User: Fold this.
Amino acid sequence: NYTTIETEQQLTVTVAKAAAQVTAPTAKTDLTYNGEAQTLVNAGSADGATIEYKMGDGEWTQTLPTA
Assistant:
């Protein structure tokens, strides 16, 4: 057996925006055709989040795009 106790409490919550810590990815500019797939961008970074990449109609992924 058990006894149910109902209580009511009021809380005040304040939500503040945090400063984003993001470094955007940059395009590689020194690519030369060599017959093999090459990474097209220098990776970006984000504290507390992930950066995803997409080429054309492809899926979003954390893998750097290559061509």
User: Anything to note?
Assistant: The longest strand covers residues 22-23.
